[in-house]
Design goal:
The structure holds three protein chains of three kinds. In chain A, about 50% of the residues lie in helices and about 20% in strands. Chain B starts with a helix and ends with a helix. Chain C is built from ten helices and three strands; from the N terminus they run H-H-H-H-H-H-H-E-H-H-E-E-H. The termini of chain C are far apart. Classes of the chains: A alpha/beta, B mainly alpha, C mainly alpha. Chains in contact: A-B, A-C, B-C. Chains A and B meet through helix 9 and helix 10 of A and helix 2 of B.
């Protein structure tokens, strides 16, 4: 029964497509289910891009207010701040891939796109928002997924976000605050200006019985790989970037503080006080998060050293 | 059981996993780096 | 592990052979066993009663050969060559493979010079061919040849037969390992408990500060 999710009900999907329930409720889709296969392919592809953004498309179906991602494939597109329709060959590739899939009996349609934000968190930038809005006009249902491969390694868990944009001019009710994440200083503006134009969906994962079997077989290999790798060594650049970003934020906070003391054009004392606190509170939280990840990395190294290097013949 | 004994002996031969000077240096370097970051974090907290 | 599985059937086969023959007829069994390309363990054969009986008889030389292949090295053979019959080429190859296992037991990094001396190999090329073709491909060792530093880094080496008295030190090492692991677990538990208490204290402190701020606000208003 757990494999029933893999069954594609073409008639049902067609009917749902006709009804377009999302047309009159911008918040209609609330959940995303991602298959183990699609997740692995996306994360490995994102990781392979290094510090460059990579992107691809996701195939799947819908089930009520949930979008189900069954599979994903990479697009031959690289670069920063790129749009999914940035290059003609990407388009050609997409169409050909989808048609071949149909011939091979894979009936799922494209239900969204994913791309990576190496090292700077899971959110939609300005260009991402416009890309997604365009897709939601012509290719509904369509989902945007962002993966941060660098933080995935550093945090030891997949950093992923799924989003849908609101229609132009729509004013969302006050959103519940989504999970806090560190935004680098040079991205804060791009993040801040557009963060109200989209909302995050709740992500869950599923795997088929074959997936379970294969993953069991790979368990030992995965376990040994995890044991013999160290996030401290693999992510040195990322941590250095985080710390220099923190230093810049501290400097900025200090400048603003000095600036406000000179009595420039600023809001009332209480408002200023509140603003500075939240800024400093964020900086402190960022610094604590980095430190926790580093200490975790160090703990695993120390434990391995004690367990495997202290035994004498 | 000889076969099992041979396997245990082979396993024990693999320990310690790493013994080189260089490893100790790198290990201590990492250790100090992390302590330094922790120190900076405490400063930021203050 | 794979090595052990591969040779399990062979060991059974030769144990049956040894049980079925007596005296001088065991000579061919011994030569066959010590020449077989996939057999690197002989203690099971050594414990067959017919083999044990060879002690002190005119056929004890076969017992010596088996013990040489169970525990000895190529140097051992050369330094006591008068005690053994001439070895056939397959036996020589086998004994050299076993010598690499013994060397790998004591060191993880084996310099080429030491290997060449122990194995009577005259040049590096021949040594590397031997390590790759006869040792790595047969699965008894896994490792990396470092041509620049002229050494062989061993990652895995199959276990040889235990020498008398070795069991004690193995048990000692295992119990050390076990006690180290237990100590580590205890210290991790303690650290977790410590972290919990610190976070409780922190929460309480934070609450106290908030209460105080509320009080001051009230007083002000």
């Amino acid at each position: 029964s757990s494999d029933s999710i893999f069954y594609y009900d073409e008639a049902g999907q067609g009917k749902f497509q006709q009804e377009k329930p999302w047309a009159n409720d911008p918040h209609y889709f609330k959940r995303v289910k991602i298959s183990a296969l699609a997740l692995l392919k996306m994360v490995v592809h994102a990781r392979s891009g290094g510090t460059i953004e990579v992107m691809g498309l996701m195939q799947g179906k819908t089930d009520g207010d949930a979008i189900i991602v069954m599979d994903a494939f990479a697009l031959p597109v690289e670069g920063t701040e790129t749009r999914v329709n940035a290059q003609a060959d990407a388009y050609e590739y997409m169409v050909e891939y989808s048609q071949t899939n149909k011939l091979a009996g894979r009936l799922e349609n494209v239900v969204g796109w994913y791309h990576s934000h190496p090292g700077y968190g899971c959110w939609l930038s300005g260009i991402d928002v416009s890309t997604q809005m365009l897709n939601q006009q012509f290719q509904e249902p369509f989902l945007a997924v962002v993966i941060d491969p660098t933080r995935t390694v550093s945090a030891g868990k997949v950093e992923i976000g799924a989003f849908r944009t609101y229609p132009e001019g729509y004013k969302p009710p006050d959103d519940p605050v989504s999970e806090y994440q560190t935004i680098p200083l040079n991205k804060i503006e791009d993040f801040g200006v557009h963060c109200k134009q989209y909302y995050a969906l709740d992500i869950t994962y599923f795997k088929s019985s074959l997936d379970c079997h294969l993953l069991d077989l790979l368990w030992n290999k995965y376990w040994v790989n995890t044991l013999s790798s160290s996030p401290l060594l693999g992510n040195g650049d990322y941590v250095a970037g985080q710390i220099s970003d923190l230093a810049e934020k501290l400097e900025q906070a200090e400048n603003q503080l000095a600036h406000s003391r000179l009595g420039g054009i600023v809001p009332g004392p209480f408002q200023r006080k509140k603003e500075e606190e939240s800024q400093l509170a964020k900086i402190t939280r960022d610094s604590a998060k980095i430190t926790v990840e580093q200490v975790h990395g160090l703990m695993s190294q120390v434990i391995k050293d004690i367990l495997f290097n202290s035994v004498r013949q | 059981e000889n076969s099992l004994l041979r396997q245990v002996s082979s396993l024990l031969r693999r320990l310690p996993a790493i013994e080189s000077e260089k490893f100790q240096d790198d290990f201590l370097m990492e250790y100090n780096d992390t302590l330094l970051i922790t120190y900076l974090a405490m400063f930021t907290n203050c | 592990m794979d090595v052990e599985q591969k040779q399990e059937e062979l060991i059974d086969h030769f144990v049956k052979q040894a049980s079925a023959h007596k005296g001088s007829a065991l000579g061919t069994v011994v030569v066959e066993a010590t020449s077989h390309p996939s057999l690197f363990a002989f203690s099971e054969i050594l414990s067959v009663p017919n083999i044990v009986e060879l002690e002190g008889t005119e056929n004890s030389i076969f017992l010596d050969v088996l013990q040489l292949f169970a525990h000895g090295t190529w140097s051992d053979y050369k330094s006591n060559i008068s005690r053994f019959p001439p070895l056939v080429p397959d036996q020589v190859l086998k004994l050299k493979q076993l010598t690499v296992l013994t060397l790998a037991e004591t060191n993880k990094v084996l310099p080429y010079d030491q290997l060449m001396q122990e194995l009577d190999v005259t040049n590096v090329r021949e040594l590397e061919d031997f390590l790759i073709n006869e040792c790595m491909y047969s699965g008894i060792v896994r490792g990396k040849l470092d041509q620049l530093r002229r050494c062989f880094e061993v990652q895995f080496a199959a276990g040889r037969d235990l020498r008398p008295g070795q069991l004690g030190s193995m048990i000692q090492t295992l119990s050390n390992w076990l006690s180290t692991s237990d100590n580590l677990l205890v210290s991790i538990q303690e650290k977790i408990k410590w972290a919990d208490t610190m976070s409780e204290l922190d929460k309480k402190h934070r609450k106290d500060v908030h209460d105080k701020v509320d009080e001051v606000k009230k007083a002000l208003s």
